[in-house]
Amino acid sequence: MAVQAAAVAEADAAPEASVSPSRLWLRLLRSPLTCTGLVITVVFLVLGVIGPWIAPYDPSSVSHAVTEGPSGAHLLGTTQNGQDLFSQMLYGARASVLVGFGSAVVTTVLSVLVGVTAGYLGGLGDELLSLLANVFLVLPSLPLTIILAAYLPHSGSLGIILVISVTGWAWGARVLRAQTLSLRKRDFVEAARATGERTSRIILKDILPNQVAVIAASFLGTVTAAILTQASLAFLGLTDVTQWSWGTILYWAQVNSALLTGAWWWFVPAGLAIALLGTALSLVNFGIDEFINPRLRQAGIGTKKAQRAQVAGHRTRRPRRTARTGPRPPAAPFTPDSTDVVLDVRDLRVEYAGEGGRVRAVDDVSFTLRRGEVLGIAGESGSGKSTLAYAITRLHKPPAEVSNGEVRYTAADGTTVDVLSMGDDELRGFRWEELSIVFQSAMHALNPIMRIGAQIEDVLTAHRPHMSAQERAARIVELLGIVGIPADRADSYPHELSGGMRQRAMIAVGLALDPEIIVMDEPTTALDVVIQRQIIAKIMELKDTLGFSVVFITHDLSLLIELSDTIAVMYGGRIVEMAAAADFYHRPRHPYSRGLLASFPTLGGPRRELTGIVGSPPDLRRMPSGCAFSPRCPVAFEDCSAREPALYRIEGGGGAARAACLLYADAGGGGTEHELARGGTQ
Q1: Which terminal residue of the chain has fewer beta carbons within 10 Å of its beta carbon, N or C?
Q2: Helices (H), 184-315
Q3: Do residues 432 and 548 make contact, with C-beta atoms less than 8 angstroms apart?
Q4: Is the pTM of this model over 0.90?
Q5: What average pLDDT does the segment 277-283 reach?
Q6: How far is residue 631's CA from residue 378's CA, in Å, rounded to a whole number?
Q7: One GO molecular function term (predicted)?
Q8: Residue ranges of the chain that CATH labels 3.40.50.300
Q9: CATH 1.10.3720.10 residue ranges in the chain?
Q10: 141-144 long-range contacts, CB within 8 A, separation 24+
Q11: DSSP structure class, residue 519
Q12: Fold of the CATH domain 341-434+515-602+610-680
């Protein structure tokens, strides 16, 4: 009842779903400042296109009406030669607008190509592209612009566009690279990789949409800067002064001393047009972030039904492999005597390559996961838990690499494959189809600018290309119902859900294709105890119903003892104890395990002092000799600093308990770590 009440309260507390995309433009246009900016910008763009056609005079033709103020015949007055200034302004609008927007397009394209490519791909390509951008950043832009313009005085608007683009792209590339470096480490990008998204699609759908506000601001700022630069170059006489632009008008006004003679109508309209267009672009920029970022939108009242929200605007991809057409038949319930192994990890080693050498974050780890089993992995921060999860799912990126070992997956039909030897296409088909992952932070693992239903549909589209839009919509509603989320929340953005609902949404994404194995990397982090209980209850319910296996990683031993069938404790990149959950709770063998359990208070029994573990986890770059835990161990003896213990079988443990401690070196069976680990979970 408490869990149900919490679920009701959580659903009531969550904000209303956002308005439909078709109404976002209306909200944008209802913003007075943004609407004003758009209207002014559009007016100038239209004048830039039709200006020469509606000009009443030839802008270069002279007349006897010299230096006359505004009148009916000449709306903006005339020049010293009797030329009509209104016609010059209309002709000049085309050149100034063309230079402004043309330069912005070229500059933005160069910035996006260099910045996003360098930031996402990394490695040598990043170094070279960053070096190129840094070279252009340190060059003095104004003198370089003047020099280049002086060498291209008769190239017209295209020459000015080239000059501004060459001198202006590096700053935007630098900003976008920094943003991409931040985004590529977010869990929702890792989730996209895990679901089988190709690099190009990840960049186009996950990286770029999250940077649209930055790109748009850079684009609009470049338009304003380009118009000012073109006007400045023309004012200095460094461009073709016979080609009319707002800058050319200011040049001739200055040459003919319009300010000294009081001919204000000669220079004010051009200066005012430049200032007005710059202001309009700034006003548009203010509204773009609200339009793009769903966090800044006000909640709407009416929402579309979840089915319609999911089927719009998604492309169907070519199938990569033959996929199941229906749900996976549930496996038999797990029992401690089960020998049906679904995942067999042998001597797995993960190293990080750095300037100081190679660091082993996971050191010769072996274990087996049986079908329907929950394997809990515990340990302090830095013990290698998350690195192990990423190694199992092949989500590591340089400088991390798997230097040794095997990860063998056995399908329900008995087929066995080595995950580490899979090619890219085979791996894309394996992930989420057979093995999925629920990342640590749901707010970071979910794309902030995509609706929940759309993110679930991405998985279905990637692996179920034969499904129709209606079938995908029905599956989305079904998955949300399985994890206890109302169907209408499919149209919500991640920030509109509570923490517990976001975590359940991540579980729904992980369950989309009925995988055999789900790796959960601290899925209850930052949730309160009531919501933690709700998430754990839902995981156990789904496991019993669907029959999948779970690798559950957390710091919280109390959670592991409650939900796990088997517990593995990691320290310094190695498994130091493995036992059945109940046996581990009542009889922890390794001194490190005893210290972890002593750090948690009990709800029943006599009161006791919480002792904890003295010292800090080892520095993986300078591991102590012998047993890694010996510097902190309260029962260490001389051999502990000289001999590295294997994972010893402990007599009397029912064949399930293993501990990497020299206290048990002579107490029972020996064997390799892999052999003992296999015996400990079978």
Answers
A1: N
A2: 187-194, 199-202, 212-235, 246-255, 258-261, 264-292, 306-311
A3: no
A4: no
A5: 88
A6: 20
A7: ATP hydrolysis activity
A8: 341-434+515-602+610-680
A9: 25-57+81-293
A10: 141/167, 141/168
A11: E
A12: Rossmann fold (3.40.50)
